[in-house]
Write a structure and sequence with these properties.
single chain, 250 residues, alpha/beta, Ubiquitin-like (UB roll), Rossmann fold, three-stranded mixed beta sheet, 5 helices, elongated
Amino acid sequence: MANTEHQPDRLIGPATLASLVLLGVLALGALWLRSGLIGADQWPIRWLDVEGDLQRTSASQVRAAATGPASNGFFAVDLGRIRADVEALPWVARAEVRRQWPDAVHVRVVEHRPVARWNDSSLFSDRGEVFDVSGSEGMQGLARLVGPETRRTEVLKAWQRMRAELADIGLDIDKLRLDERGAWTLELTNGTEVVLGRDLIDQRLARFIGIHDELANGERRARRVDMRYTNGLAVRWAGSEREEESGEHG
């Protein structure tokens, strides 16, 4: 019988050693693939598929932004870099990027949809995001929202709420302004300015909507309506420099 009492213990068994070698080979192979040392020639990306409802961004612009990272091949392509480069395009809000076996990269693009202008230099998207696009100053049909940067979400929500209420009487907002003192003023698409002030904004707008038909049915057009009165209003008619008051100022 062999004496094993003084034989040293094996630190790593043959099976464990084989597993570690195999893992090392796989890790090295994966590193080579990812770094582009091998694979770019054997597994090139032949297709850059672009998906999305594109109105202001072309598929060719998206492909051009993705071409550089895609040149590393199917396994080494940096999907995060493609996403960042595509999202850097002016009208792109988000991009989703994935590999598509065996030789394609699929890019899904979501564009910004502008709904209003913010402080004349930026745009509000339909998701409530503010973004900047060079040359957008000439875009027509967008309401102008003006206010402190710290209250832009409040201004957007107020515009959405007021717009829905005014739609019931066939009016829309051309400009909504919140000044530094917290006072609200509307400029309607029919040319009438409505002063709501700082307090009881919803109630004052509701009173304006209630008397709108009476104002509109007259021979004169209301140029400015001041609703900062407890039980009334002041109207400046088109062609007049004087306001006609009715009610108590609040």
